[in-house]
């Protein structure tokens, strides 16, 4: 994709992101990797931090069959800054709580949590997304 193509697309949508369609709910992938319990805790944390409306939205998203994953996307710098502010504030606070409560922190869990909730954040905030037409390798 050329710079001009990207600029043209971003003139009508907020994000270009790869989409993945599943034959089972997205959240089942997290349970399949023994990360289901911590995902539930994270959703509870999101509800406490941002309100139950947001926590419930994330849960509905994760029970769906279509996801924007991988934290690989194209957007404007302004939106990227908003997402990074949300993401790193949220993950840092969640991490801090787990340390204070002396809870185990599974390897790469923050990557999973950020990847699997990325699309929920986009949609909840009303961003428009153009599914990427390329395959991630």
Task: Describe the structure concisely for a colleague.
The chain contains six helices and five strands.
Q: What's the helical proportion of residues?
A: 55-70%
Beta-strand residue percentage: 5-15%
Structural class: mainly alpha
Molecular shape: globular
The Cα radius of gyration reads 15 Å
Plain-language structure description:
- The protein is mainly alpha-helical and about 140 residues long.
- The chain contains six helices and five strands.
- The chain has helices at about 5-10, 25-30, 35-50, 50-60, 75-100, 110-125, and strands at about 15, 20, 65-70, 75, 130.
- It has a three-stranded mixed β-sheet with strand order 4-1-5.
- Helix 3 runs antiparallel to helix 4 (about 50-60) and helix 4 crosses helix 6 (about 110-125).
- The longest helix has 24 residues, at about 75-100.
- The chain is globular.
- The chain starts with a helix and ends in a 6-residue tail after the last strand.
- The mean pLDDT is about 85.
List keywords for this structure.
two-stranded antiparallel ribbon, 137 residues, mainly alpha, 3-stranded mixed beta sheet, globular
List the helices and strands and how they pair.
Layout: H1 3-10, E1 15-17, E2 19-21, H2 26-32, H3 36-50, H4 52-62, E3 66-68, E4 74-75, H5 77-100, H6 109-124, E5 129-131
Parallel strand pairs: 1-5
Antiparallel strand pairs: 1-4, 2-3
Helix pairs in contact: 3-4, 4-6
């Amino acid at each position: 994709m050329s710079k001009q193509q990207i600029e043209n697309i971003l003139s009508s949508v907020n994000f270009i992101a790869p989409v993945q369609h599943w034959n089972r709910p997205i959240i089942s992938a997290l349970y399949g990797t023994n990360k289901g319990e911590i995902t539930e805790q994270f959703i509870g944390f999101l509800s406490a931090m941002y309100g139950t409306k947001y926590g419930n939205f994330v849960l509905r998203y994760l029970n769906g069959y279509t996801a924007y994953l991988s934290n690989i996307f194209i957007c404007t710098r302004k939106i990227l800054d908003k997402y990074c502010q949300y993401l790193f504030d949220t993950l840092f606070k969640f991490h801090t709580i787990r340390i204070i409560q002396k809870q185990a922190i599974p390897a790469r869990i923050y990557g999973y949590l950020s990847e699997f909730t990325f699309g929920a954040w986009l949609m909840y905030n009303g961003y428009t997304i153009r599914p990427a037409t390329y395959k991630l390798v």
